[in-house]
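Standup notes, structure subgroup. Blocker cleared on the aspartic acid input:
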Amino acid sequence: MPQTGQAQSPLACKFGGTSLAGAAQIKRVASIVRADPRRRVIVVSAPGKRSASDKKVTDLLYLCHHTLREGLSAASIFALIRERYVEMAQDLGIEGMPGWLDEVEAGMVAGAKREDSADWLASRGEYLQARLVACYLGARFVDAADLIRFTEDGWLDPSSYETIARTLGPTIASNRLSETAPESLVVVPGFYGRDANGRIKTFSRGGSDVTGAIVARAVGAAAYENWTDVDGLMMADPRLIPNARPIREVTYRELRELSYMGASVLHEEAVFPVREAGIPIHIRNTNAPELPGTWIRSTRPNAELPVVGIAGRKGFSTIQIEKSLMNQERGFGRRALQILESHGISFEHTPTSIDSMSVIMHEEELRERRVAVVDEIQRVLQPDRLEILDGMALIATVGQGMSHTIGIAARLFGALGNAGINIRMIDQGASEINIITGVMNEDYEAAIRAIYDTFVPAD
Ligand code: ASP
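Run returned:
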């Protein structure tokens, strides 16, 4: 525990929707915040689901918007939202809630027909939650609309960092480290800011993670704590490997490779602001704060395991093009990719050999343009053979230790071979921290298990 009064970098903490789903959860959050006086900046999501059948407040707000757009009354949906906040406020002994809710409801009805009303309304879940949490913690509420700016093209305006540092700085620099006095703790709603015209604009769904990262960077946080409802990142999807080991440490690059292949714990855009500033992200479980969670940093010591995680996705298609002397035909690959580009298809991998080239893409991207793409390839490239293979799954085996450990590929392919799984494609990117294998969709689960069992020794 840090010493009271000592000048030190704060921790920026973001609490997700399930961490704030009800009064009991908010009480938990408060005890986490109070347990370490470095926790000075708190970013909150809107209340999430309390059970599998429950609705997220953000979803209800979007529903209000759509209902109003259809010219119907959203009063009964808003009543559900009101009920949730009023119940939490009552349980927490907060008085201002009805007033804030009236304001939002009036704004919703008045702005129903406006272009920007969807973003404004969706952002109110975070706004109301931050009001509530700030009151409960006795903290200063700072509206994200006064901190975060977007440019004309919808990107984050870098001047936001300066605004945040200037606005939150004095509060965070306050010396009253051991007290939860309003002047030492700030609560900021996640998910939104203002666009270049001053209107409220949200990030994409799950965007409070991005707000947390931006704020962490702006205040020069020692770490960005992302509090959620899981123990951290797992070495493989727990739905396939029920006792998958948690990942203690992972680098930003490794995380990027894993998330690209479907492992999700953070909003994709949340990594960049902190990564550039070298601020580590610490994923933690609000319901089990005693657990170590997962650290995401620029570098990590080489652990005993060369593989840090395994992730994958189903549903890829491969276009296989064969043509004798393809290797001598300049611009062949470019023309092939250009055809895809002109049909709005992005490719994932392009393994090649001397006289053949494969292009791998998401099945749904190809689906409707299939005939047109095939026709154009036939006409422009005049291949000897052209075939499309659907139903492929890609599996990424990721770890920085792989590049300097001999025999990883042999073990990986051996594992799949022993499990009787046919490998359809292999790609090791230039980064050498990732080997991608393509197998048929029906072999996907067995392949993940085989790779996991090979690289992760049983406890
Ligand atoms: N409440 C928003 C959503 O549901 C943003 C967030 O939770 O991060 O997408």
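Discussed briefly. The first strand starts at residue 11 and ends at 15.
Next: hand off to the docking folks.
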